[in-house]
Specification:
Helix content of chain A: 40-55%
Number of domains of chain A: 2
Strand content of chain A: 5-15%
Number of helices of chain A: 14
CATH topology of the largest domain in chain A: TIM Barrel
CATH architecture of the largest domain in chain A: Alpha-Beta Barrel
Largest interface: A-B, 62 and 62 residues
Number of strands of chain A: 11
Oligomer: homodimer
Radius of gyration of chain A: 19 Å
């Protein structure tokens, strides 16, 4: 599974070495957007593609793993929310299919890290505060993703932004650190490295890509999103960044009126995220996307996204004052 | 008023040239923290010190301007919230005292820019979204400060974080751009430059400095602040980032119960910010500070802050991948 771009000199750091990738760019394993087409395209371009197990039944995940392996010889991974109901079955599939890398989130990093390590799998855990970063170190994970307030979907209660979170986590732990939240350009990638990250995880930009499995109606709303069009919502249940639509307006009304958690649960019901993001009902569906969607204006193939990120990074570095 | 550090080679850019300063570091003109001692210390260290007119009666401001001029030969400025009741009188004092630079905020940049320019004064306006950035260009201001969600005190309704806001504003306008919100270290400064800023405005870190006029009780709470201890609050009036204390808990209770704007106004009353930040009643006072307070752990003199920022910037630049 070790893989190299031959005859190309590239930067190497702790993240590219750990994950055996060319660029320190990870595609977030997002619900309803991250199937085998997106993950394999990202891995084929030298980043790390992740399948989003959070929206897949175990048999669907297995199919996507098999298709990803057929579509790329490069490393890829699976993102697994640890609160997933079929978690044992999911982990069995990941182990038996020899997936090389697992990103875990939404749960205790201690629960699965040892089992995955025993099977030769690299483990990365997603956190949003120092307390959980330290738990990750205790659990022996190989790297962490620190995700800021501006990120789409589920998010930390502290509301710490990427700008504040990354230096804080960098000061607290020494393991490799991947920054997430608000990164959709080479200049934001450069900012993440300045803050102390060793790599970046990018969600919204890949959700909007040609290879994303998001419904075209959802992609079109990502392109249309302007400043202020996403808000961290549902704080009485689990803070989630939503894109403004009819469903969001109903959430907002409950929030402004101080509704109880039960009222939110009742409104939310079941299957809202699938309805909006995968089936394209952009009025009644729940649309999870990051604040940086305001800067995304075109559906691009993954190859173009990589070219833009890399040239943008190199340009940003060249225009920064070399010293003060 | 043109001033130079002799025999020292330093970087120069559009912000250092516009404001005639050594380092592209501006101290935010904060209410109750930014008197002549802080502003002159910052200017003497090669940054731009700003007096915070938002918490000064006109005669108090005049006294602080005179004291600042006595304490430094370097450029300094005044931050003026344009909704200030005595705005005409404030501007008369600024003009007659020949203050070289004015930062305006909380109002329309068209109202005063021409008058200030006619008197040879450089004008910088503070914004939190693209719409107002474009208004600033129309009004002919010399530079803008773009302030992200993580900043302390009054804040934009869009909740756009510094990581998302700076590239967005950089793509929309060509005038010099100063980043604010979440910046209290050299690495965050480097991140701001990577995002496209020409300079940084730093608030919380200077509010906690030895020379700040904030009450010691407030400074001690800034040092004690942990992740999640500040929240953007009072959204039904004007979004304001507050530090968690007894008063904040009362605000939070109203928010969770969906209280009307009148209930918030009633709770707020008059003089809460002075009570907390200047008089040191940290239970009943309103404490405005940025999210980055979680990283501030020591009261430092301004000279030490400058040394740390500059060495931190230079270190951050050296540790970033030079290209991808």
């Amino acid at each position: 599974m070790i893989w190299k771009f031959e005859n190309v000199i590239t930067m190497q750091n702790r993240i590219t070495e750990l994950l055996k990738i060319k660029y320190p760019i990870i595609q977030g394993g997002m619900v309803w957007c991250s199937g085998w087409e997106l993950a394999s395209a990202v891995s084929n371009n030298g980043g790390l593609g992740l399948l989003g197990a959070g929206s897949m039944h175990p048999d669907v995940l297995k199919e996507h793993i098999i298709k990803t392996k057929a579509a790329t010889n490069n490393p890829f991974g699976v993102n697994v929310p640890l609160l997933y109901p079929d978690i044992e079955q999911i982990m069995d599939i990941i182990i038996s299919e020899k997936v090389p890398i697992v990103f875990t989130s939404a749960g205790n990093p201690k629960t699965w890290t040892q089992t995955l390590h025993n099977n030769g799998i690299t483990v990365v855990h997603v956190i949003a505060n120092t307390k959980f970063a330290l738990k990750c170190v205790e659990a022996g994970v190989d790297a962490i993703v620190a995700e800021g307030f501006e990120a789409g979907g589920h998010n930390g209660r502290e509301e710490t932004t990427t700008m504040c979170l990354i230096p804080q986590i960098r000061n607290s732990v020494t393991i490799p650190l991947i920054a997430a939240g608000g990164i959709a350009s080479g200049s934001a990638m450069a900012a993440a490295f300045a803050l102390g990250a060793d790599g970046v995880q990018i969600g919204s930009l890949f959700a909007s890509s040609l290879e994303s499995s998001a419904h075209i109606n959802f992609k079109n709303l990502i392109l249309a999103a302007a400043e202020g069009d996403t808000k961290l919502s549902l704080k009485k249940l689990s803070p989630t960044r939503l894109l403004n639509n009819e469903f969001y307006q109903k959430v907002l009304e409950l929030e402004l009126n101080g509704a109880t958690p039960d009222k939110f649960r009742e409104l939310l019901g079941k299957g809202r995220a699938k309805k909006g993001m995968f089936l394209g009902d952009t009025d009644e569906g729940e649309l999870e996307i990051g604040q940086v969607s305001a800067m995304i204006n075109k559906i691009k193939p993954v190859t173009e996204i990589f070219n833009d990120l890399i040239s943008g990074y190199n340009k940003a570095i060249r225009t920064m004052p070399a010293s003060l």
